[in-house]
Specification:
165 residues, alpha+beta, Jelly Rolls, 4-stranded antiparallel beta sheet, 9 strands
């Protein structure tokens, strides 16, 4: 017997969105059907890249960001794949590999996947979880909003990309 997923309610008005505000003014939306969880501003603030960004600007991105969990050994991004998202590690560790060679280790607060988005290229390396990994995933189309609402964050992402070259 097949079971259908429970219906997901999507806000249809500003008042309905406001009614979902959590403490601190962040908005919590129901999880996506693919299992991602909603993200709030306090979770975004736990990432050094976002610590100095005003809450109002972060709220715009957090609304469309989602939390993902990956088991140890899972490839979060694969070398050569097309870039649709970038990630910030909330908890856990991962390794960065290119051509099977380990390049770096990542942990809480580290960001990855932004290079391919910023430079409109395919992924230059794979990122593989080395422990249970919890990441904040931000969709590529949020980058345009970030350029407008928090240019200092995009500038820092670009600086990090240049430092890796």
């Amino acid at each position: 017997m097949l079971h259908s997923a429970p219906p997901v309610s999507v806000p249809t008005s500003v008042d309905e969105v406001r009614s979902r505000e959590a403490p601190g003014g962040s908005v919590r939306f129901p999880p996506d059907s693919d299992g991602g969880e909603a993200v709030d501003v306090s979770q975004m603030k736990s990432i050094p890249l976002f610590q100095d960004v005003p809450d109002d600007a972060l709220r715009k991105v957090a609304t469309f960001a989602e939390l993902e969990s990956h088991p140890e050994g899972a490839a979060v991004v694969k070398e050569g794949a097309y870039a649709n998202d970038f990630y910030a590690i909330e908890d856990g560790t991962a390794k960065v590999e290119r051509d099977g060679q380990q390049l770096a280790e990542l942990g809480p607060g580290d960001v990855f996947g932004e290079q391919a988005l910023l430079e409109s290229e395919q992924r230059s390396a794979s990122v593989i979880a080395t422990s249970p990994l919890r990441v904040i995933k931000i969709a590529h189309w949020e980058l345009d909003k970030m350029k407008r609402d928090m240019p200092q964050v995009v500038d820092e992402l670009k600086r990090q990309v240049q430092a890796r070259k």
